[in-house]
Amino acid sequence: MNVLKSLLDLFFPSQCFSCNKRIDKELVLCEKCADELSYIKENSCIFCNRETKEGLICEECKQEYPFDEVVSAYTFNLPLQRMIHHFKYNEFKRIGTFLGNSLADRISKYPFYSSIDYILPVPLHKTKKRFRGFNQSEIIARALSVKLNIPILKNVVKRKKFTQTQTKLKKHEREKNVANAFQVKKFGIIKNKSLLLVDDVLTTGSTMKSIALLLKENLAKHIYVCTLARA
Ligand SMILES: [Zn+2]
Ligand SMILES: [Zn+2]
Question: Nearest ligand to the C-alpha of residue 57?
């Protein structure tokens, strides 16, 4: 087995996921690219840049988004974009664990952390999951669950509508695109619970908003949102 591993290392050496430089196999980025990763500035609203007392959503934006708190780890700069690309198409476990651990560190600094009952990965439609082979939000959720010692709730929110990819849509089009896309199953379990919604990248927040509204309709107590990056 070790011989096989050494051969694999020889023919497929570990490479930095951003610049392809050879690196130790325990690492995911070379030193230079790791230095370029940039944490999101705290105490400023992720949606409107207003100053916040804590976390990444201001009181005004809480009127528009039903989130009690938002945490995102990194800005979406080049090394991170490349990592997320690899994360979606291959090598998902190593990258998911690396970035998930870093997000967990960030979350554990906030007082709301101790009130989270369950972690909820944003679901993929089953056709998309079959095509990709995994749901990237579940991989991040797993890393968070291990690090923060909070259980994951699976199969509570279901994506019932196959939505087109949102990348090229404007904010109001995105909201329309994901409206009624989700459904809550087993709603008894979320009643009065504080839930941490997990996704890879936060863009306009319309997917998270659609799920959060549904969870609150079904009497969830708090909805916290976390993502690896803010695009
Ligand atoms: Zn590099
Ligand atoms: Zn704001």
Answer: 2
- Residue 78 has a pLDDT of 93
Q: In what order do the strands lie in the sheet with 222-230?
A: 69-75, 222-230, 194-202, 118-121
DSSP run (H or E) holding 70:
strand 69-75
Residue with tokens 């404007």: 170
Query: Ligand 1 mean position to 17 CA, how many Å?
Result: 7
Distance of CA 59 from the midpoint of ligand 2 (Å): 7
Residue 192 Cα to ligand 2 middle (Å): 26
Nearest Cα to 182, choosing from 163, 202, 201? 163
Q: What whole-number distance in Å separates Cα of residue 20 and Cα of residue 156? A: 39
**Residues of the chain where predicted confidence (pLDDT) is lower than 50:** none
H or E stretch at 184: strand 182-184
* Cα–ligand 2 centroid distance for 63 (angstroms): 9
Fold adopted by 67-230: Rossmann fold (3.40.50)
